[in-house]
Amino acid sequence: MNEPNPDDGMLQDYLAECREHLATIEADLLAVEHGGAEIDEQLVNRVFRAAHSIKGGAGYLGLVTIRNLAHKTENALDLIRSRQMVPTPEVVNILLCSFDKLRELLNQHEESDQTDITEFIDALAALNKDYLPDVKIGQVDPLKSVLQSPPPMAVPVEAVLEPTPAAAEAAAPASETTIRLNVSLLDSLMTLAGELVLSRNQLNESLSRQDARGIRSGAQRVSLVTSELQEVVTQTRMQPVGSLFAKFPRLVRDLSRELGKEVELHLEGREVEIDKSILEGLSDPLTHMVRNAVDHGVEAPAERAAAGKPRAGQVTLRASHQAGQVVIEIADDGKGLAAEKIAASAAAKGAVTREQIESMSEREKVALIFLPGVSTAQKVSDVSGRGVGMDVVKTNLERLGGKIEIDSAPGRGSRFRIKLPLTLAIIPSLLVSDHGERFAIPQVNVGELIRIPVAQMGQRVDRVGDAQVLNLRDRLVPLVRLGEALGAAGREDTAQAMNVVMVDTGAFEYGLVVEELHDTVEIVVKPLGRHVKGLADYAGATILGDGRVAVILDVAGLAVRAGLTAGAAEALTRQEAVDTGGAGGELHALLLLANAPGETCAVPIEQVSRIERVRAGQVEHLGGRRTMQYRGASLPLVALHDTAAVGELSAEQNWVVIVFEKLGRPIGLLAAEPLDMVEATLDVDTVTLRQRGIAGSAVLRERTVLLLDIFELAEAVRPEGEGAETPALRDEVAGEAATVLVADDSDFFRGQIQRLVEAVGCKVLAAADGQAAWELLDRHAGEVALVATDVEMPRMDGLALTRQIRADGRFTDLPIIALSSLAGEEEIASGLAAGVDEYQIKLNKDELIESIRKAVRRKENGPDVVGCITKKE
To answer: Is 44 helix (H, G, I), strand (E, B) or coil?
Structure first.
C-alpha cells in the first residue's frame, strides 16, 4: 500500500470532494427515511453515488479502511435503491452512523488504516445478508453496538459551547481553509483589479504633471473602484446559512427519538447569506438553543394532547435580511418560558434582589435567563437546560456583534430573535470625539442623533435620582456621558449645546452624550491588543484616514460600566405617554410638519424614510414636473397644493423634503419647518377637510392638523401609464389575487393599510371592528390568506377576534398579524397568548408585504417541513 501524502494535490482534491458529498448526505438520508416505503430513487441514487465516489477515490489513493467501509455502505444503499430493503429509522440510523465514521476517517486519513471499524462492517454486512422487510432490524445482534453508539451531535452542551482543543484543531481544515466561489465572482475581482491598476496609472500621471483636475478625477476613480472591489471581496466571504441549517434536521431527529417526543423542524431562509466567520461562530449557540427548544421547550406528546395541542411539536429555524442585518429566529410552540421561575432562580443565585424583581416587567424577568447559572429545569440534563449555558450563548453572540431578544407566551411557546451584522470585517460607523479622543460607534447601534441647544437644556434634560434623563417625545431616556463612563476627568459644560447619540443595546435604549459628532465612515475592524482585550467597553479598534487609531465602542459594555441595566433603564423611562388627543384610544406616532404659514400637517412616522433640508434653488422644474437630485438620481417632488386647496410654501420658510418609499419607488413631499414628532390618540374627521392628498383632520395640542394621504400624493407624481411596480401576489390554488382581511376602526388607518395591500395586487376585505371582521371571514372562509387586525376596536377587539378565529377549526393555520402603532411588552405578550402570529407597527410596508408573501406561499405549498415526526421506540 502506498502511504498517502498530505501535501499531494490529488489527495487534497479528493478530501475536499468527499466533504462536499458528506455535507448533503444527512439531509438526503433523512428525506429518504421520511418517505419510508415510497422510495425516492433520485435521492437514494445521489447518496449511492456519493458513497461510490468516496470508495473509488479511497481505492485509488490506497486508503483501504475508508474504501472498505464505503463499499459496505454502498451495498446497503443498493438494496434500498432496488427496493429490496425499506429505509426504516433503524436502517437509516446505521447508514448515518457509517457516514459519521467515514467523516471521522477522512478527517484523520493518515491514521485511518489503523482504525478498527469491525462493528460498522458487521452491522452493514448483516443488513446486506440477512435483511428481510418483515424482520425487525433490532433482532440482528451485530447492529446493537452501532445503534447504541451516540450520534456525533448527542454530546453535553458544555462540550458544544466549549469544544476541546483537539476537536477544534481537527475540524479546522474543513471549515477554515476551503471555500466554494462562483467563477463569475472571480471574473469580477480580476476586472476590478485591472480597473484599479488603470486608475492608479492615471493618478500617477496626473501627479507627475501636477494636474489638479486630473488628480481629483483620479482620486475619485480610485475611490469608486476600491468601493466596488470591497463589495466583491466581501461577497467572497458570504456563505448561505443553509450550510449551517443542514445539521439540525439530524440533531432534532436523534434528540426527539432519545427523549420520546414528536418534533417537526421547519427551516426557512436557507438562501440568506452571511459572513463565513460569523456563520462558523454561530454554530455552537444555535446548536444549544435548538437543543433547548426540543428538550425543554416542546412538551411530551401526552402533555401536549392534554393541553389541546397537536402531539407533534413545532420548532422553526428562520433566517432573513432586515435593515442591513441578518435576523435568525428560533421558535417553538411549547410551554414557553416561566418568567416567575426564572426570576426566582436568579434571586436564589443572588443575581438580583426580590425588590428589583417586583419592579420588573415580564420581559425583564425572562431576560434574566441570560445570567450565569439561572435555570428553570427541574432536573439536570446532559442534553440541555432552559437557562444553563444561555449566558455563554449571549456572550458568544455579542462577540459576533449580535443581539438576542426573547418573546415568550406561557403555553404557546418561545421565540429567540438573533440580529447579526452581514460581516465583521468592514462595518459602517459613526465617528464621535470626547476629551480629545475619537471613537467609533457601529451604525447598527445608532438610532438617531440629537443636538440640544443651551436654551432648551432646562426643558429637555432633567434628573431622576442621581441619573440624568432626556425628555424625548414625551418619554424619558437615560443619559450616559462618554467621558464620565470612561473615567475621564472634567466638569459638565452647561454653556455648550449637548450632542446625544441614541444607541440601542438590544435590551434597552439610552442616550450617549459626546462632545462632538463627526461623519459616518466604513471602518476596517482590528482586534484589540492583549492588554485591553478584557475591557467590555470596547469591541475593537480601527485606523482612520489620517493614520490615527480610534477604538470601537461597545454600547452594551458602556451601559454596564455606567451602572445602567435593562431594569434601571425601564424604571427611569416608565412614564405614561401624554394623551394629546382626547381620553382613551390607541396611541399613534406622528411626524408634524408645516405647509404654508399657519397650516400644520401630519403623517404616520412609519411611512417616513428620510428628511432632507433643501433650498428653493435645489428644486428643478423639468418636463412639466418638479424634481430634485437625490443620491445620484432624480427624486420626484410633490407639494400639498398640487392636489388640495391649501396655501403654497413661501421662500422665507425653511424648506424640507420628506422622503417616502412608494413600494420601492421614492417620492418627496415639499414641506417646511418646524418639525416635531408626537405620540397621540386620534379622533379623525374624514369628512370636513377631506380632499385629494388629505385623508382627514384631527385636533392636536388645540390645533387643527391635516392628516396627509401619501398614496394619493404619490399618484400625483406617477408618470402616466405607469402601473403598480410590485407583481401581484396571486393565490395559485384559487387562480386569482390573494385576499387579505383588514380590521381597523380608524377610517384613516384602515384606508392606508388597504392601499398598501392593494398596491401589491391583493384583494382586501375591510372591516371597521372585530365583529364585522369575523362575519366577513365566516362568509369568505377558504378565500382569506391572511388577517391583519388592529388591537383596540369597539364591539370586538383584535385579541378577542384572534381567539375566536383560533377556536374555529377552519382557521387553525390562518396567519394573523396584529397591527399597532405603539405596542408595549405586555401587549405583545397578550397578543401572542391569544394566538397572534406577529406583532407589526402599523404601515410598516416591508414587513406587511413580506407577511403577505409568506401567507400566499403557505396557502399554496404548505410549510417547509424538513424534519420528521419521530418517537422513541
So the answer is: helix
Q: Residue 249: enclosing H or E segment and its boundaries?
A: helix 248-259
Task: Look at residues 405, 443, 401, 440 and name the one whose alpha carbon lies nearest to residue 421.
Answer: 401
How far apart are alpha carbons 562 and 512 in whole angstroms? Answer: 11
Q: What is the spatial distance between Cα 205 and Cα 213, in angstroms, rounded to a whole number?
A: 12
Per-residue pLDDT, 316 = 92
Q: Which of 164, 174, 121 is nearest to 12 (CA)?
A: 174
Instruction: List C-alpha distances in Å: 697 to 583, 688, 704, 707.
Output: 17, 8, 7, 5
> pLDDT value at position 862?
52
Residue 651's Cβ-count burial label (10 Å; 0-12, 13-18, 19+) is: exposed
Which residue, among 283, 412, 824, has the nearest Cα to 586 in the 3D structure?
824
For residue 742, give the amino acid letter.
V
Count of residues making up the chain: 873
In b/e form, how buried is each residue of 509-537, taking b as 16+ CB within 10 angstroms?
bbbbbbbebeeebebebeeeeeeeeeeeb
Backbone φ, ψ for residue 259 (5° rounding):
-90, -5
The per-residue pLDDT for 819 is: 83
pTM check: above 0.90: no
CA distances from 267 to 249, 331, 386, 866, 867 (A): 9, 11, 22, 7, 9
Distance, CA of 680 to CA of 676 (rounded, Å): 12
pLDDT one-digit tens code per residue, 35-72 = 888 888 888 888 888 888 888 888 878 888 888 888 88
C-beta of residue 75 within 8 angstroms of C-beta of residue 13: no
Q: Which amino acid is at 474?
A: D
Element holding 305 (H helix, E strand): helix 301-306
Reported confidence tier of residue 671, pLDDT bands at 50, 70, 90? very high
User: How far is 262 from 847, CA to CA, in rounded Å?
Assistant: 32
Q: Report pLDDT digits (tens) over 780-790.
A: 888 888 898 98
Report how far apart, in Å, the C-alpha atoms of 436 and of each of 465, 483, 741 are. 30, 10, 57
Amino acid at position 80, single letter: I
Question: Would you give the end-to-end CA distance of the chain in angstroms?
Answer: 44
Mean pLDDT along residues 731-755: 75
Determine the Cα–Cα distance for residues 104 and 515; give it in Å rounded to an integer: 57
Residue 782: DSSP 8-state? T
Instruction: Count CB neighbours of 290 within 10 A.
Output: 25
* Region label for 36, one of left (φ > 0), alpha (ψ between -120 and 50) or beta (otherwise): left
Note the pLDDT of residue 131: 55
The SS3 assignment for 681 reads strand
β-bridge partners, 470: 461, 477
Give dist(CA 546, CA 438) in Å, integer: 12
The span from the CA of 697 to the CA of 580, in Å, is 14
What pLDDT does 871 receive?
34
Amino acid at residue number 436: G
Provide the Cα torsion 92, 95, 97, 100; round to 10°. -120
Q: At what angle do helices 41-61 and 9-35 cross, to 10 degrees?
A: 150
Could you write out the DSSP letters of every residue in 457-497? HHHHEEEETTEEEEEETTEEEEEEEHHHHTT------TTSP
451-461 per-residue burial string, b: 16 or more CB within 10 A, e: under 16: ebeeeeeeeeb
Q: The cell 484523520 sits on which residue? A: 108
What the block records as the C-alpha cell of 86 is 425499506
Cell numbers at residue 324, please? 442591513
The DSSP bridge partners found for residue 789 are: 743, 818
Per the structure block, which three cell numbers stand in for 595? Answer: 405647509
Three-class secondary structure assignment of 168-232: HHHHHHHHHCCCCCCHHHHHHHHHHHHHHHHHHHHHHHHHHHCCHHHHHHHHHHHHHHHHHHHHH
Amino acid at 252: V
How many Cβ atoms sit within 10 Å of the Cβ of residue 721? 5
